[in-house]
Write a structure and sequence with these properties.
By secondary structure, the chain is an alpha/beta fold. The chain has a domain of about 170 residues: Rossmann fold (3-Layer(aba) Sandwich). It has 23 helices and eight strands. An eight-stranded mixed beta sheet has the order 3-2-1-4-5-6-7-8, with helices on both faces. β1, α1 and β2 form a beta-alpha-beta unit. It is globular. It binds NADP nicotinamide-adenine-dinucleotide phosphate. The site of NADP nicotinamide-adenine-dinucleotide phosphate has 33 residues, from α1 and α4.
């Protein structure tokens, strides 16, 4: 792919837009001067990105005219006015529109662009795209897509191919049906925050057992990276890797079970389901948010250390690198570890819930009308569906699988099974191979209600068992997930080695549950 051919613009350079812009350059796919970035208020963007050679403008029309690939990165509440403002310059036969906007369907976007002929790709990346480590889910058609004219279908395929090339360089990408983009928002885009929280919780446990904050974060983050690498590169199920570090009566299984008793897996599953439900309604509701200022640029180091209050602001760490001294970070971290985390967490949650719903102050009806009048003839009358409601999230396979894993160590996702089968068959030491063959799991049917019920039962059981401690379960509520650690039992987590035979796994799982 030549970058000349696919000149690119990012419309709406906030958190994810900036991360994408950085990723495009860090990947070597584009030079900064080949990328056009837009924002209504460009002052900060000029300073942070203009100085690095990016083309910065508040003029979306200009950006679209100069690009083939247009990546739309505004919030759901800002989307309509942006699309209406560019519809007159979008050429369905030329442009590829990639939308990362949560909840807005391809039909929604087509309607606003005034043409069903525009090749629109939905993409759901996460902020690790900055370092070319994003998981990005792509969709160009839904399950019930009715094929249009051949040339339109061809355009869609080309748009998807271009998107795959870009997002594969910016990490890893998979193509899904459009209905799965909402669940993907929860698992992939929100998901990175869940793992940040897990890293933070681990580091807080680490501090409690004797590590300085910065060492604890480093150890926790690298350990998380190692775990992800083992799953991705090794191709094994996480539980298989867990079995390798859990010695009978050892400290790892003691720590793991303690976490499960406190609802670790349940909290993660519930959080993902809740995020997916929320994501489904983001565009259709388009709630205005309180007029709080969103801060986009924070020094990466500050984010790492700013554990309890990090998420009260937006979290892109792209523009200002390392502007705070290490000693300041250390001091802040110590203070935060002492502060009242419950309160901060609550603020965090509220802030996160509203950040993507900023009111769109620049919505200008008059200019919209003018642009509509100027729309070129090539725009065909819209044949796209006018339904603005995002379809409800399809039953997410991954979530179901997570739940299964909680109950059975033999569980393995269809996806992971698909990708791992070859590897596992090649490995005679893999004790799961036989079980996998014996247990043909039917395609999981996800049922939120039954998960809810199961979770409610488990929660009530745990609450009784723990004598009222259930409310603090999950590690995210009070920011002190590591506090109940028994120092002797929770330390380590690795290094015990030794594989157990399958029958021992079942034993262990009974204990875990
Ligand atoms: N953040 C993530 O990790 C992530 C991941 C995947 C998907 N997403 C989705 O991506 C979208 C953006 O999220 P975000 O977190 O990046 O939001 P954000 O930080 O608020 O960024 C939105 C940006 O759009 C700009 N903008 C608004 N209207 C504009 C217009 N008419 N023309 C040009 N720029 C305009 C805003 O700046 P001005 O006000 O100065 O114009 C702002 O910088 C959301 O739909 C979100 O769901 C986010």
């Amino acid at each position: 792919m030549t970058t000349e051919q696919h000149s690119i613009s990012v419309l709406g350079c906030g958190n994810i837009g900036l991360s994408i812009a950085h990723g495009l350059v860090n990947s070597g796919l584009y030079k900064s001067n080949q990328i056009i970035l837009t924002k209504r208020n460009t002052e900060s963007l000029e300073k942070s990105m203009g100085s690095k050679g990016f083309q910065v403008t508040a003029d979306n029309n200009l950006a679209v005219k100069k690009s083939k690939v247009v990546i739309v990165c505004v919030t759901p509440a800002q989307l309509d006015s942006l699309l209406e403002s560019i519809r007159s310059v979008i050429n369905p036969k030329y442009h590829v529109v990639i939308s990362v906007v949560s909840g807005a369907s391809i039909d929604d976007i087509s309607v606003k662009l005034g043409s069903s002929g525009v090749a629109i790709v939905r993409a759901m990346p996460n902020t690790a795209i900055q370092y070319c480590q994003s998981m990005t889910c792509l969709a160009v058609r839904g399950t019930h897509h009715v094929a249009g004219r051949a040339e339109i279908e061809e355009r869609k395929d080309q748009a998807l191919a271009i998107s795959e090339k870009i997002f594969n360089v910016l990490g890893n990408c998979i193509v899904l049906k459009e209905e799965q983009i909402v669940p993907a928002t929860a698992l992939c885009a929100c998901g990175i925050a869940f793992f940040f929280r897990a890293i933070r919780a681990a580091s807080q446990g680490g501090i409690e057992i004797g590590f300085h904050a910065e060492d604890a974060i480093k150890i926790a983050a690298q350990t998380a990276k190692g775990a992800a690498t083992l799953v991705l590169e090794g191709g094994y199920h996480p539980e298989y890797e867990i079995d390798k570090v859990t010695t009978p009566m050892g400290c790892t299984i003691a720590g793991l079970n303690q976490m499960e008793h406190n609802g670790f897996s349940s909290a993660m599953i519930k959080g993902i389901v809740t995020s997916a439900e929320k994501a489904a309604s983001l565009y259709s509701k388009k709630q205005p948010a309180p007029s709080t200022t969103t801060h986009h640029h924070h020094a990466p180091q500050a984010h790492q250390q700013d554990s309890a209050s990090t998420t009260t602001t937006s979290t892109t760490s792209t523009a200002n690198n390392n502007t705070e001294s290490k000693s300041n970070n250390k001091r802040r971290t110590r203070n935060q570890n002492k502060s009242t985390r419950n309160q901060q967490q609550q603020q965090t949650t509220e802030s996160n819930n509203t950040q993507q719903e900023k009111p769109d102050s620049n919505n200008n009806d008059q200019s919209h009308e003018q642009q509509q009048e100027q729309a070129p003839e090539q725009h065909q009358p819209s044949t796209a569906s006018s339904e603005n409601n995002e379809q409800q999230p399809q039953q997410p396979q991954q979530q179901q699988q997570s739940h299964q894993n909680n109950n059975s160590r033999r569980g393995k996702s269809n996806n992971s099974r698909r990708s791992n089968t070859k590897k596992e068959q090649e490995d005679p030491n893999n004790p799961w191979k036989k079980q996998e063959n014996n247990h043909q799991h039917p395609a999981p049917v996800y049922d939120v209600n039954s998960v809810d019920e199961a979770l409610a039962k488990a929660r009530s059981r745990n609450t009784h068992q723990q004598n009222g401690r259930g409310n603090r379960r999950g590690g995210s509520g009070d920011g002190g997930g590591g506090r109940r650690h028994n120092g002797n039992n929770s330390r380590g987590g690795g290094g015990e080695g030794g594989r157990r035979q399958p029958h021992q796994h079942q034993h262990q799982q009974q204990e875990a549950n």
